[in-house]
């Protein structure tokens, strides 16, 4: 898993438990009905899915929350297994995510339906991270270790065939698809700890830079309108959200608080972003915020004393 700097954040000590059985998942209710939490969900709501952990429960589970706030609905409950890095399918019916356990017996990408049920492992994804569903719904891109480096792969949703896209001596993280499915953008981290945004054309595997070498650019997300948002650690030492065109032009900053703003995700209409804002160490809570693409209209979406991470906005 990657943090604001893009380096792998430690896998925290997990709660010891002999059984790995899933608890019965909560289901988002249809329009006009209250779910198990008493929250009324309209079927047309484009919910935001995210990972959460706290001091009492140091294992991540996935939750869903409406973009206007309210009480999040818990989608997974796995006492000895962490569920992180969710990614919606383009039809909004399934979520891909990373699942791992402390003993290594469970480690890889899984998918589930929007209510947390019908879980399926994606074969061949042990050690993988950062799943991203293709715009046509047929493939999942992800980062996977090859020797000492991480490379970008693409596979069908059933795990085969698997295609390795990058072959470098650097680490490639967090792929995101162009709206037409012809390209992926991703973060490339070098040995010095810097990271720049790259893009690769799937038909030719030609790779071109989007941002400059020597940057600290992480977690890109490509909008339907063709803009790429990402998190950049700048001269202040904090991570702020920026937007850039796929050709590398027009870079501008969106947020500027003295806090770390990470893992942005576009709303379906490209007008807003959801992201994680947190402090400087693991003891500080991290919350989800929503902001307009021009940096105005900021509001806090989650408020509990927890770490709310890696949000993805339902298409």
From TrEMBL:
So which residues are the signal peptide here? 1-29
Name the source's superkingdom.
Bacteria
Sorted alphabetically, the keyword list is:
Signal
InterPro entries in alphabetical order: 6-blade_b-propeller_TolB-like, WD40
Gene3D superfamilies listed in its UniProt record: TolB, C-terminal domain
- The answer to whether UniProt assigns keyword Cell wall biogenesis/degradation to this entry is no
Record family assignment: Belongs to the TolB family.
Write down the PANTHER family for this protein, in alphabetical order. PROTEIN TOLB, PROTEIN TOLB HOMOLOG
Its name, as the record gives it, is TolB protein
Species per Swiss-Prot/TrEMBL record? Streptomyces litmocidini
Query: From which lineage does this chain's organism come?
Result: Bacteria, Bacillati, Actinomycetota, Actinomycetes, Kitasatosporales
């Amino acid at each position: 898993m990657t943090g604001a700097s893009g380096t792998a954040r430690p896998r925290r000590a997990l709660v010891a438990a002999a059984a790995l059985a899933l608890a019965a998942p909560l289901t988002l209710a249809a329009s006009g009905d209250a779910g198990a939490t008493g929250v009324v969900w309209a079927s047309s709501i484009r919910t935001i899915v995210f990972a959460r952990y706290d001091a009492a429960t140091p294992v991540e589970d996935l939750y869903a929350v409406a973009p206007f706030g309210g009480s999040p609905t818990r989608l997974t409950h796995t006492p000895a297994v962490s569920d992180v890095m969710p990614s919606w399918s383009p039809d909004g019916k399934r979520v891909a995510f990373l699942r791992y356990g402390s003993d290594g017996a469970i480690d890889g990408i899984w998918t589930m339906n929007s209510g947390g049920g019908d879980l399926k492992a994606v074969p061949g994804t042990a050690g993988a991270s950062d799943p991203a569903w293709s715009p046509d719904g047929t493939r999942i891109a992800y980062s996977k270790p090859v020797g000492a480096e991480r490379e970008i792969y693409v596979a069908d949703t059933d795990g085969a065939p698997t295609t390795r896209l990058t072959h470098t001596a650097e680490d490639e993280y967090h792929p995101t698809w162009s709206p037409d499915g012809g390209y992926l953008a991703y973060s490339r981290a070098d040995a010095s700890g810097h990271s720049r945004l790259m893009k690769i054309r799937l038909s030719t595997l030609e790779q071109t830079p989007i941002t400059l070498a020597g940057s600290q650019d992480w977690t890109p997300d490509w909008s339907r309108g063709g803009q790429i948002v990402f998190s950049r650690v700048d001269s202040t030492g904090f991570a702020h959200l920026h937007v850039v065109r796929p050709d590398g032009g027009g870079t501008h900053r969106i947020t500027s608080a003295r806090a770390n703003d990470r893992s942005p995700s576009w709303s379906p209409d490209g007008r807003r972003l959801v992201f994680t804002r947190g402090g400087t160490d693991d003891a500080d809570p991290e919350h989800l915020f929503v902001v307009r693409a021009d940096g105005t209209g900021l509001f806090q979406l989650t408020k509990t004393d927890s770490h709310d991470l890696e949000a993805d906005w339902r298409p």
